[in-house]
Write a structure and sequence with these properties.
By secondary structure, the chain is an alpha/beta fold. 42% of the residues lie in helices and 16% in strands. An 8-stranded parallel barrel has the order 3-4-5-6-7-8-9-12, surrounded by 6 helices. Strands 1-2 form a two-stranded antiparallel ribbon. A two-stranded antiparallel ribbon has the order 10-11. The protein binds NADP nicotinamide-adenine-dinucleotide phosphate. NADP nicotinamide-adenine-dinucleotide phosphate is lined by residues 19-22, 30, 55, 89, 126-127, 161-163, 181, 183, 210-216, 219-220, 255, 272-277, 280, 283-284, 287.
């Protein structure tokens, strides 16, 4: 868990980062809702662990519940550990859908208040596929506002965090961003983000790979968790079942192979895993060091 450079930024991140969307109480996405005390205790466990990256967002949970829970844990811990990278994201106004430059500044203001910190080192544009690219890149749009926040020194670095790869390429090509975060597309089951990550790395950006379990299927197994990337997907479930059987033959938990698929890639600076209980933090660190034999990697590749 030695921190390593996040692209050309001056930030150093541990290979494992923790994501907070399952902590925000989002039953529509995960099929369960995490209570406030469990969520706060989970973030406290992260702050006490070797992990130095926590990923959250203005839009996680009702009325900023995700960030408020992170903020409560930061307060209980007496502040963030030295060198800790607390990253958040700007989101549209949940009432009006406004995602203008003015909304970006307001989103950051809300986030800092909820998190109880004076600044964040990394601020992402969250799921920009929600608005047309032309609107996002207009002079009074969210991309220009983020660039200005960086120029003013209000935040150190800016990222773009989203799903659809065609859109992510367009944002990468703006040259405006320091970091990219993509999700569910660089996993044992879906490797479509590989060329995008390679291009981002080549251009000096830091790459954060989120959701290495596809939102849970590759952690719990497809029988227990039938959705991939938050949607029912029978084809993915069938391939995950075959991968789970291969892992069992080698005595390796499916979750260990899924996590290490991302951890072992030299394209990825940090792999962001979502958890919702304090025990999961130690469990995830153990999965990261579980031995995976070369023959299993070869078998998983063919599947
Ligand atoms: N657009 C974006 O910016 C974007 C999109 C997606 C994700 N992200 C970030 O990336 C993070 C990770 O994505 P994700 O949480 O959706 O997906 P994920 O990391 O692929 O999977 C999380 C799910 O796996 C379960 N899990 C984790 N470790 C486990 C273990 N050892 N055993 C059994 N189950 C385990 C969690 O369950 P428990 O809750 O029971 O621990 C949770 O339901 C998010 O939290 C978020 O911070 C960002």
């Amino acid at each position: 868990m030695h921190p390593r450079p996040l692209g050309s930024t001056s930030l150093a991140v541990t290979p494992l980062g923790i994501g907070t969307s399952p902590l925000a109480g989002m039953p529509g996405t995960y099929g369960y809702s995490t209570g406030e005390e469990a969520a706060v205790a989970t973030v406290e466990a992260v702050l006490a662990s070797p992990v130095n990256l926590l990923d959250t967002s203005n839009g996680y949970g009702e009325d900023g519940a995700g960030e408020k829970r992170v903020g409560a844990a930061v307060r209980r811990a007496g502040g963030l550990p030295e060198g800790f990278v607390l990253a958040t994201k700007v989101d549209p106004d949940p009432r009006t859908g406004d995602f203008s430059g003015a909304r970006v500044r307001e989103s950051l203001r809300e986030s800092l208040e909820r998190l109880g910190v004076e600044r964040v080192p990394l601020l992402h544009l969250h799921d920009p596929e929600r608005i047309p690219f032309a609107e996002a890149t207009a002079p009074d749009g969210p991309v220009a506002a983020l660039v200005e926040l960086r120029e003013q020194g209000t935040v150190d670095f800016i990222g773009v965090a989203g799903g659809e790869l065609d859109e992510m390429w367009r944002y990468l090509d703006t040259g405006a961003f320091d970091v990219v975060l993509n999700h569910n597309r660089f996993t044992l089951l879906d490797r479509s983000a590989q060329p995008f990550y390679a291009a981002a790395r080549e251009r000096g950006l830091g790459v954060l790979n989120a959701a290495p379990y596809g939102g849970g299927m590759l952690a719990r197994g497809p029988q227990a968790h039938a959705t991939y990337a938050y949607r029912e997907d029978a084809g993915m479930a069938a391939r995950a079942a075959a991968m789970q059987a291969a892992c069992e033959r080698h005595g390796v938990p499916l979750a260990a192979a899924a996590l290490q698929f991302s951890l072992r890639s030299e394209l990825v600076a940090s792999t962001v895993v979502g958890v919702s209980s304090p025990e999961r933090v130690a469990e995830t660190l153990a999965l990261a060091s579980n031995e995976v034999p070369d023959e299993l990697w070869a078998e998983l590749d063919t599947l």
